[in-house]
Amino acid sequence: MSADRLAAITIPGPAGPLEALLQDREGREPALVVVVCHPHPLYGGTMHNKVVHRVASTLFGMGAAVLRFNFRGVGKSAGTHDRGEGETEDARAALTWLRWRHPGARAWLAGFSFGSWIAARLTAESPEVERVILVAPALKTSSFASMYRARAAKLVIQGTADDVCPPELLEKDFPNWAEPKRLVWIQGATHFFDRKLGELGEALAKALRDDLAV
């Protein structure tokens, strides 16, 4: 028998310990592990963000072991904000730890807003990452040129009423991204998917159901 669990843990990071939450099933080895990255630390982003929580819980419900963590300087995580460079290394440390814990599992990355930029950058540098899930990618403030060459499968979920990460920027850039890729629109959804979190979870589950049939 296996039991669902949500464990508050600390993992080693390049700037010191990183505060994290691990969702897995005790007594069962997962076929898939996913690290989920949170939005911008300087604007209140943490691993407890409601979009991050919905992505993590949806993936866990579909069979994955999921790790979300606080970037350096957020919550109990050591260090200070590093404009994306150090945060990418934090995400790399989280992925390394999760793959160490479950060495036989496939590895994916996911991120929301600023976290999607971090997840995209790390994916392009990590051939072991099979897929990246990007929710409301922050194209207004960051370059996603790493997606032009990354071989991993790409799933993007974007709200049509997002005024923080404007849809038109994604529509312009997305054709340049390497295949395989998929873009899913959620009609009327704002940046934080206010009153649309259910639709976000359903869209994510629908797009990934075949991949997560474990």
Short description:
With 214 residues, the protein is an alpha/beta fold. The protein has helices spanning 50-61, 85-101, 114-125, 167-173, 197-208; strands at residues 3-11, 18-26, 32-37, 65-69, 106-112, 129-135, 153-159, 181-186. It has an eight-stranded mixed sheet with strand order 1-2-4-3-5-6-7-8, with helices on both faces.
Task: Write the SSE topology.
Layout: E1 3-11, E2 18-26, E3 32-37, H1 50-61, E4 65-69, H2 85-101, E5 106-112, H3 114-125, E6 129-135, E7 153-159, H4 167-173, E8 181-186, H5 197-208
Parallel strand pairs: 3-4, 3-5, 5-6, 6-7, 7-8
Antiparallel strand pairs: 1-2, 2-4
Helix pairs in contact: 1-5, 2-3
Could you please describe the fold and organization of this structure?
There is one protein chain. The chain has 214 residues and is α/β, with parallel strands linked by helices. It has one domain: Rossmann fold. The protein is built from five helices and eight strands, in the order E-E-E-H-E-H-E-H-E-E-H-E-H. The chain has helices spanning 50-61, 85-101, 114-125, 167-173, 197-208; strands at residues 3-11, 18-26, 32-37, 65-69, 106-112, 129-135, 153-159, 181-186. Helix 3 (114-125) links the parallel strand 5 and strand 6 (129-135). Helix 1 packs parallel to helix 5 and helix 2 crosses helix 3 (114-125). The protein is globular and about 45 Å long.
